[in-house]
């Protein structure tokens, strides 16, 4: 029984890693995020820059841009 569970966990881990690799590859085509918002001139928080690679606006200005 333990072998079956171990095998299932290994397969799940491989699928997860493959998905992450695909996402990383898609994001590698993005330009680096800007440090300063093009809208207001404030610093774009690090969490946003990491979550949205290639971002050019802070959350507030992005909401204004997208309406």
Name its key features.
67 residues; mainly alpha; 2 domains; 3 helices
Describe the structure.
With 67 residues, the protein is mostly helical. It has 2 domains: 1-29; 31-67, no CATH class. Helices cover 61% and strands 0% of the residues. The protein contains 3 helices and no strands. The longest helix is centred in the N-terminal third of the chain and has 27 residues, at 2-28. The model has no long low-confidence stretch (mean pLDDT 86).
Spatial gap, N to C terminus: 54 Å
- Indicate how many domains the architecture comprises: 2
- What's the SSE pattern? HHH
Note the beta-strand portion: under 5%
Give unreliable regions as ranges: none
Largest sheet: none
Summed over residues and divided by their number, the pLDDT gives a mean of 86
How many strand segments? 0
Rg, rounded, reads 18 Å
Structural class: mainly alpha
Helix content: 55-70%
Shape: elongated
Provide a count of the helices.
3
Secondary-structure map:
Layout: H1 2-28, H2 46-51, H3 59-66
Task: Please give a quick description of this structure.
Helix content is 61%, strand content 0%. The protein is an all-alpha fold and 67 residues long.
